[in-house]
Amino acid sequence: MTRPDPIYLDHAATTPLWPQARATMAPLLEGAFGNASSLHAAGRDARKAVEEAREAVASAAGVRPEEVVFTSGGTEADNLALKGIAWRARHEGRDGIVVSAIEHHAILDVAEWLARNGFRLSVIQVDADGVVDLDALAAAVDRTTAIVSVMQANNEVGVIQPVASAAEITRAAGARFHTDAVQAAPWIPLADADLLSLSAHKLGGLKGVGALLVRRGVGLEPLLHGGGQERGIRSGTYNVAGIAGFGAAVTATMQAQPALSERVRALRDRMEGALLERIDGVAVNGAGAERLPNNCNVCIDGVEANSLLMLLDGEGVAASSGSACQSGAPEPSHVLLAMGVAKERALGALRLTLGRDTSEDDVDRAVDVVARAVARLRR
Ligand code: PLP
After folding, report:
1. pTM for the full predicted model
2. How many of the other CB atoms lie within 10 Å of CB of 283?
3. Mean pLDDT, the chain cut into blocks of 10 residues (379 residues total)
4. Any idea which residues carry the catalytic annotation?
5. Same domain? 93 vs 200
């Protein structure tokens, strides 16, 4: 018996390489192996590839090339933003860190670590749709705040945050505004922020590459000291091929974005509508808010997400849950809990995230598989 083609609906976790990224990287993995910091011809060729990628990322984000700091990914970019600003600001009498309750752990855990090391942490709550409470943010930010971090769009429920207003509140207090745009970047235009995190593998580049955009005049301490690359902000030999692929992936993403976002949104709406119609007890998380076009996150009554995911995987459907499974026992998602979803319901969360190659047939077959699996689990 032949198995049906697998259906990959976990593009928020990672998404395939753009062919343009692969083509840009190929020569750099073969003959062109120079170190971008070397002065000879091989080094200069490698440096050229890095600088072209820098220009591509800068142009996509509407910043200057010198405002792009390449990192090993979104996690490092987030760490560099928070720790780098916090460390610098302490000498200026600012020790306040403000983050939203629904940030990725690459922000939340850093903020908690800073709090254990002498900084004051305020965590801003969200409403039932997962939108950050701007009044609470305004009340928390003052002249002692070093940095505010509010993600541009959430990785679990896809809810787009009011980052322009959050940035305005932050800047009025003379603090720095950071946004984690890792999930937003593939789908919507990038926000304006003092610092902005990107990850290549979420938009068709390689894993282990990313960038922190640092606007001119924003001073921060490095996390990695060494060879002085990236104007001393991020030492370490350049991942030349990864960075070049990132640049190509960003360019391809920006060219495709308006039409692709529209197409994928229609598919997501079709999928969500079918799930609601065919399965009782389904609630769409963040339904009342503006969301990324590729995200569908639902709670399904009477179903435990991990059992559902296993059944889906057995049928070739790759999806994810909002919960983290550490030490064997599934934990409900901190994002859903912050939105006021009860713990038991949150354990039944299913995240389906579409990508640029997702077809109507994929969506229809996935809904069939989910409906059958839910019926089986409820038996
Ligand atoms: N921030 C968000 C919102 C993410 O979704 C992720 C990845 O899941 C990260 C940061 C971490 O990025 P990376 O995988 O490049 O370390």
Report:
1. 0.97
2. 15
3. 83 97 95 88 94 98 98 98 96 95 98 98 98 98 98 98 98 98 98 98 98 97 97 97 98 98 98 98 97 98 94 97 63 96 94 98 98 96
4. 325
5. yes
